[in-house]
């Protein structure tokens, strides 16, 4: 049942190219327009939306953070991400012009359901991005976009996370197309890039042995830090969460730019730090800034594990270890950069002899508030 793998988590990591491919499947109509037939909310309503709030918990919330960068960039709609259990307690400003996007693998997370009910009471429309057919969340939402990751057994989410990100990209592109923020050709161009992602994810998985060896060699680390910027920031948070969840190791993710405002005080000799490096071809000067972050932490004794695009030579002199990922458009990079972090935490947990699929104290879905 584990398909020859030691754990469901490993099996599910390997299923990610298919999970993303299946989530993207059949989204173009005969005219080459992106279609989301399931999105049963009137176009007029979707055109009038002036705010999006993404609600979710755990890993799904980090997918929400990635979604925010993409949706704001493509649709120019102010977008917030809120942990579902915090949402209603801050008396959020929600009305008929708010679109709430609820992300959940199980569709049964009570905190997320309660957030959605609260939003609906205020008149908001809710789209759910969910992996479980017929579960409560998509039934209660105004529209349901399904991820097609297949059943996820391991408690720590992997393929559901990548599929949630893929589905959120589709939603963002659809809204941008509908609202006229993007031309048809632009949307199609990004869709084409998206369609190449499963193959690129596979390429990252094919390089897993290097990452596994690294995980095994670092099994006695006391703490691991993760740094990223822009969409690399939620990837850093997710990398840290995975390590906490299954390897019971202290781990933190930071926005790389925040480092000098506090966390750099943590860095001492031998501290392992993962750095997710944006594409050197991306916008702004982000790449150069992240490279200088690597330099700063290394100068203070950190062992740097750098996740960088193939061909990015600027990182070489500052990296103790380099994990290569294929080049991709900046916004899509999380689909690749997350994968080595999943493989790493899985390897650390295996090396420590832990049950990767059933980590202590955690449940696959939490159906109480
Ligand atoms: C947690 C799970 O309890 O719930 C996490 O352990 C998961 O893995 C989170 O990310 C949210 O779950 P769901 O089903 O709403 O995506």
From TrEMBL:
Residues 41-181, 214-359 form the SIS domain. The keyword DNA damage does not apply. It is an enzyme of class 2 (transferase). It catalyses: D-fructose 6-phosphate + L-glutamine = D-glucosamine 6-phosphate + L-glutamate. Its EC number is 2.6.1.16. It is found in: Cytoplasm. The active site is at residue 364. It comes from the Bacteria. Keywords: Aminotransferase, Cytoplasm, Glutamine amidotransferase, Repeat, Transferase. Catalyzes the first step in hexosamine metabolism, converting fructose-6P into glucosamine-6P using glutamine as a nitrogen source. Homodimer. This is Glutamine--fructose-6-phosphate aminotransferase [isomerizing]. It comes from Rothia endophytica. The chain holds residues 259 to 627 of 627 of the full protein.
